[in-house]
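note to self: the first set is below, dont mix up w the second
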Amino acid sequence: MSIDLYLFAGAALFAIGFHGVIAQSHLLKGILAVNIMGNGVFLVYIAIALRTPGPIPDPIPHAMVLTGIVVSVCATGLALALTDRVQQSYGKAEIAEDEAE
């Protein structure tokens, strides 16, 4: 398979996640959209690592993706904890629309 297919798939995942971040008012859906964006970035990094000449891919992007996965899991846990606090404080986990208009 072509590496360009993986690059396109990563860009598509990023675009879908970005649309979800912009379009969703519910905080959990926004967290999921950010995770989808991160997975798109990880896929692009892995595809770029495969473009090196020779039979062995570049290990630096792989190490960056592994580190990114760990950071992503930690950030998701923090975001979920904050969303739980918002839910407990306000009774809903949605971003309020401007009602002053």
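second set (the one i keep forgetting abt)
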Amino acid sequence: MSGSIIRLVEEDIARPNFGPSPADGAVAGTPVEAAHEYHSRDGRTSGVWECSPGRILETEHAEDEFCTILSGRVGIIDNQDGTEEIFVAGDSFFLPKGSSLTWVIYETVRKYYMAAA
């Protein structure tokens, strides 16, 4: 791997450099999350993240984030209007900084992410 090209490998979640630990903001169940972060600079991060079933409340999403689901099933509720979007393997989505969200992890979910504060 060069310094200019970073390959994200789903299996690297088996070697997390964050977690596993209880998910911050858990409001139902006991979700445990872990991440293997590949890059972090100037408020931008990218990696692979995994979380077991449960609900996680985020009153203010900390960054702009683009995600692609690799496995599992997750619902994300927009706390402003109550709508829920369900995402499964192959789905991608964007979450704007400051969003009020509830993550509903129906089955252990794994995603690639790129976030910018």
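remember for set 2: The beta strands are 18-22, 26-28, 32-41, 44-51, 54-58, 64-78, 84-88, 92-95, 101-116.
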